[in-house]
Amino acid sequence: MSRLTLKIVSSTLFSIDISGKTDTLGQSLRTALEYAYYRMNNPLALPVWMPTPRNLKFHQAKQTLDRLVLEIIQSRRQNSTEKNDLLSMLLAAQDEETGEKMSDRQLQDEVITLINAGYETTATALAWTWYLIGTHPDVMVKIQEEIQTVLNGNNPTVEKLSQLQYTRCVFDESSRLCPIGLGLPRVALEDDEIKGYFIPKGTIFNIAQYFIFRHPEFWDHPEQFDPDRFLPEKVKQRPKFAFFPFGAGQHICIGKNLALMESITILAAIMDRFHIELVPHQSIEIDPRFSLRPKYGIKVRVRKRY
Ligand code: HEM
Question: Which residue among 43, 45, 187, 208 is least packed, with the fewest CB closer than 10 Å?
């Protein structure tokens, strides 16, 4: 799933084909993130310039990322053909006051942010969805029936995606039980009080999706995997902010629609052609770092349907 979503995000946002580089890019991104996580949790860590094995590994990953992304930017600068994608918009963007364009360094940072925010998240959400489908064969049958009715052997198209209602319910229910984030950090703009707790202005707090998405006040049998709870009539009965896997407010995920579109397409395309089955006796654990990834991945057996 990581390779697939990395390819999708690179081709949709930047019109580049990174087949062949996905493993290097993915591995370097992961090393850099692991390093950031380590530093966040170890305030006494040795400075980044010291040549410790961990620091050297990070510098190597960063160099690889910088090189790959700079190649993308420079090849676009040299190639005059107009592309209607995000990279062209970033290249054309100008500061409203000074008229200045972005430097290569700024562009590199934007591209890395978008690739990173856009691939691991979707890959993780899909991995958990396969896990839940693999442990609920009845759900797999229902998805396959819906796909047969809606697509009738054709490839999924944007127009057809909204008709794959049950498939979307499955994805939402998976995002409820296995949200990719531990929570959303926010800062209190004013003094406030929540359920008797005083929150002074300036407090940094975490809106923990994992717990809200399993709160018995909003969800019956919250631990159960039940995609039907996302049918429109059921959604209407819940407060809007009982479920917000893409965040909310000014910083809501900018990739929400892309992520939903690609996830439902991937689920439909694979379920149409294959049965999946979890490999037994594997160790499935959450890696609670930046995204709640399955620590050792999710291994499934894939069997052709026809
Ligand atoms: C299933 C897939 C995804 C999930 C669950 C997800 C979830 C989130 C969440 C929870 C946030 C924080 C929102 C907040 O603080 O209110 C966020 C922010 C963000 N996401 Fe996603 N995301 C996904 C896919 C994507 C994709 C495909 C892209 C890029 C194309 C993307 C780009 C971003 C960016 C740039 C931000 C920062 C927005 C800001 O701070 O203004 N995400 N995402």
Answer: 43
